[in-house]
Amino acid sequence: MTPAELSSTVLHAVRRAVDAGELDVTVPARAVVAPPGPGGCGDYATNIALQLARPAGQPPYRVAEVLRPYLVGVDGVADVVLTGPGFLNISLGGAAPAALVEEILSAGTRYGHADAPDAPDAPDAPDGSVVRLHCPHDLRAVVVADAVARVLRCQGALVRVTAEGFDREWTAGLGVRVDGVGPAPGSPPVTVRPVPAPADPLPLGRDAARWALLHPAAHDRPRIGDEHLAQREGNPLFRVRYAHARSRALTRNAADLGFAAEPGPVPDAPQDLLAALGDHPRVLAAAAAHRAPDRIARHLVAVADAALLFLPTVLPRGGEKPSAAHRARLALAEAAGTVLAGGLTLLGIDAPDHL
Fold this sequence. Notes:
alpha/beta; 4-stranded parallel sheet; 45% helix
């Protein structure tokens, strides 16, 4: 069950509680589901009870108690635990990881992309109009606008980027482009104006420079230095690309051992990795809605860190023969690599198979 499907399941539970007369509220348009926070448990958590408490005229915990029976037993939901003031912590059934992996591998690097602008958390322009982005004559602003445009397009929006000025070397060095130079025509645009970089990032090369400009939030000053080129764990970009390359290497190693990936139950599956992979569509939608590609960069770091702990367990050890568990672990590893490659591509950064 993906986060989008789980969100629909939560809303269906609210609707059933309303129809049964246990809650007197208007069913909201969407329910936020995300990995549990501190004190939480399970695969996902939702604050829907806190959202409905005031209109229902009941304490949040009581609303959560009403909703819990409508979630427990739903296909794909193994358990629901209440924590804090009324958070619903949802554990997915054993088949959920296999279904998630299969969905990711089927979609490929387009996993999390929306086919139409009216997807949950979609950007504006559901009527087919154009989202207009405009930025000053500043390299970081142009790079951020370029990444925002990529993310918006993956969510089904039509986008036009204009800038007050543009240097041709920015295209050659960082792969950015704008659709027009000068004042933005048409309807008032969204201005993209991040804190400028303190130094020229072009000497870092395309991938490291784009990461240096996109990983920090727009209101943070980016660091422009050789740390982005370092081949070590302290460099987040290296960890993301290394995790992707390792996942691809495992596929090659498995082929040498005579087996391939096959989604299935993964014994002791790492819940933090599954949660991060399942959260990818929501992260893309939120990055588009908030014009914040830095959310994708930070999410990729979380996926990579969880994957790097898991990848050493994939292949058979010693005299072990490849089994269904090994094929399922390999499928999960390939799914992680697929999410990393897709996210890096949206940021305009290469995801090499060898590193």
